[in-house]
Write a structure and sequence with these properties.
Order of helices and strands: HHHHHHH
Structural class: mainly alpha
Helix content: 55-70%
Number of strands: 0
Strand content: under 5%
Shape: elongated
Length: 144
């Protein structure tokens, strides 16, 4: 643990560092995955323009959630409405995500991110506009 003087290391032999979380590299694989999917979908939707029906399929519509499409509580974190919208959200995820993910591990981080998305979606479902769609990762990022 920590720093050791050359004399102590020479008497104890070669030391190795163990990764107790079992992850690899920077330990931010889930963060990179969420970030990458959001950027790819942003490009596929025509830079937030809602192209190819992706917006209609993934954006949170409170009417659709009420009709049983519960997955729409999670999927809006992958869509963004403008370049500034995705830039701010992905910057925040890039700053916060790796730190938290390295501390708890990739699976618990992904679970916390998705749970935060669901809570944000639930708040929008109960308090938001019944006909306006919701997109963005802000709720999940605030939850982190």
């Amino acid at each position: 643990m920590g720093q050791r003087c050359p004399a102590c290391v020479s008497t104890e032999g070669r030391q190795r560092e163990l990764n107790v979380r079992g992850g690899t590299g920077s330990g931010a694989s889930a963060t990179k995955m969420f970030l990458g999917i959001a950027v790819v979908l942003f490009l596929l939707t025509g830079m937030g323009g809602g192209g190819q029906g992706i917006y209609e399929a993934l954006a949170q519509s409170n009417q659709a959630v009420a009709a049983g499409e519960w997955w729409r509580l999670f999927t809006p974190i992958l869509l963004h409405a403008s370049l500034m919208h995705i830039a701010f959200n992905m910057y925040a995820l890039w700053i916060l995500g790796p730190q938290i993910e390295r501390g708890v591990g990739s699976w618990p981080f992904a679970a916390a991110y998705l749970a935060s998305a669901a809570v944000g979606g639930a708040f929008f479902f109960y308090l938001g506009d019944p006909v306006a769609p919701a997109v963005g990762a802000s709720g999940a990022i605030f939850g982190l």
